[in-house]
Design brief:
This protein is of the alpha/beta class. It has helices at 16-25, 37-45, 59-66, 81-96, 131-135, 144-157, 184-195, 213-229, 235-238, 255-268, 293-298, 306-310, 320-333, and strands at residues 6-10, 29-34, 50-53, 71-74, 102-106, 126-127, 162-167, 170-172, 199-200, 210-212, 242-244, 278-279, 303-304. A seven-stranded parallel β-sheet has the order 3-2-1-4-5-7-11, sandwiched between helices. A two-stranded parallel ribbon has the order 6-13. Strand 1, helix 1 and strand 2 (29-34) form a beta-alpha-beta unit. Helix 3 (59-66) packs parallel to helix 4 (81-96), helix 4 packs parallel to helix 6 (144-157) and helix 7 (184-195) crosses helix 10 (255-268). 49% of the residues are buried.
Length: 351
């Protein structure tokens, strides 16, 4: 049955665009909040009813449009407090009028960073059905300041709103209908093409869970359905806002294993002289993720999506390395760019 419910997606890019595709098929009425005019036509071709052109810092504009929607999803970035505050203001105003809102914010499992810098694999695994495990991370952990601001408002509003935080790990995968690549492995590949070798930081031993972007999109839809069907006073909603989303279980590849695959793939393509990966010196981190390179590709971040699996969600897409070799690498190798001019990833790192 068509939903007819109005959804406001802030930042419908790599993640949110795929969520939009699925929600449109179910009859949800979607408005996308975007930064670029050319993206408006793309979203409308995907079925969005409307788009709003704006900046994440325009709190008044975000609040205005969030007020008119039953469901709000923030997938632009995990680290922009003003846009989150704007949404929370709208949620509070709606609650004052007796209108319940579903708000799903996108954080990331960099919040679990242990400072490993690639030097070891941690035995520590976090489970989202044990809220104390998630709350045990330091208040100054990556993304945590934003998450805590959301949790504070959730506590204040109680059953007047349904607020959840999706916490994905490394996100990979390629949707040919969108033409957008993921972040970590493409950046490591562009680095390898510039420097002539596939690399890792530290000893390359740390591991992070991962998820295909299409499986992640299905997780948002599963979570929306759960929040719609569950009473607002349910302990499941009131006591735990956190949802991990991963496909790996205990089989998380190390960053050295990922570098092995990148090196072997580029060597087979005749693009580097030696397939053997090696440690990347810190002096070259500007060609990766700059000052946050240690966190992005050096942390241990082992999460388990217990709660989503209990809802019936399960990952069905290709694994990280299969997707890289079969889907993302061919697109990367067709890029018509000066590979020696690559100067690291310049966008926002979501996870």
């Amino acid at each position: 049955m068509p939903s007819g419910k109005k959804v406001f997606i802030v930042g419908p890019g790599f993640i949110g665009w795929n969520v939009l595709d699925l929600l449109v098929k179910e009859g949800y009425v979607i408005t996308g909040y975007i930064r670029r005019e050319d993206h408006a036509d793309q979203l409308k071709s995907s079925g969005a009813t409307d788009t709003v052109l704006g900046d994440l810092n325009d709190k008044a504009l975000i609040t205005k449009h969030a007020l008119a929607h039953d469901i709000i999803i923030h997938t632009a970035t995990a680290d922009h407090l003003p846009s989150v505050e704007a949404i929370l203001d709208a949620v509070k105003h709606r609650a004052e009028k007796g209108l319940s809102t579903i708000f799903i914010h996108t954080s990331g499992t960099s919040v679990l960073d242990d400072g490993a810098k690639g030097n070891y694999k941690s035995p520590k695994v976090y489970h989202d059905n044990i809220v104390s495990e998630v709350n045990s991370v330091p208040d100054n952990a990556p993304h945590r300041r934003i998450d805590l601001a959301i949790v504070k408002v959730q506590s204040q509003l109680g059953e007047k709103a349904k607020i959840s935080i999706m916490i994905p790990p490394t996100i990979y995968g390629f949707n040919p209908a969108h033409g957008r690549l993921s972040i970590q492995l493409p950046t490591l590949t562009r680095f390898a093409l510039k420097h002539g070798y596939a690399g890792y930081i530290g000893a390359g031993l740390s591991v992070e869970s991962n998820i295909h972007v299409l499986d992640l999109a299905r997780a948002y839809v599963a979570l929306i359905h759960h929040l719609e069907a569950t009473p607002a006073n349910s302990p499941d909603i009131l006591n735990n806002p956190y949802y991990f989303c991963e496909a790996t279980g205990d089989v998380e590849p190390s960053w050295k294993e990922i570098a092995d695959t990148i090196g072997a793939s580029l060597y087979r393509a005749g693009l580097i002289a030696d397939a053997t990966p090696r440690m990347i010196p810190p002096g070259d981190y500007d060609d990766l993720f700059g000052k946050i390179t240690d966190v992005v590709i050096g942390l241990n971040s082992r999460s388990r999506a217990v709660r989503l699996r209990e809802l019936g969600w399960k990952p069905i897409e290709k694994s990280l390395l299969e997707s890289y070799v079969q889907d993302e690498l061919p697109v990367l190798l067709k890029e018509e760019v000066d590979r020696n001019a690559f100067s690291g990833y310049q966008g926002i790192v979501a996870s």
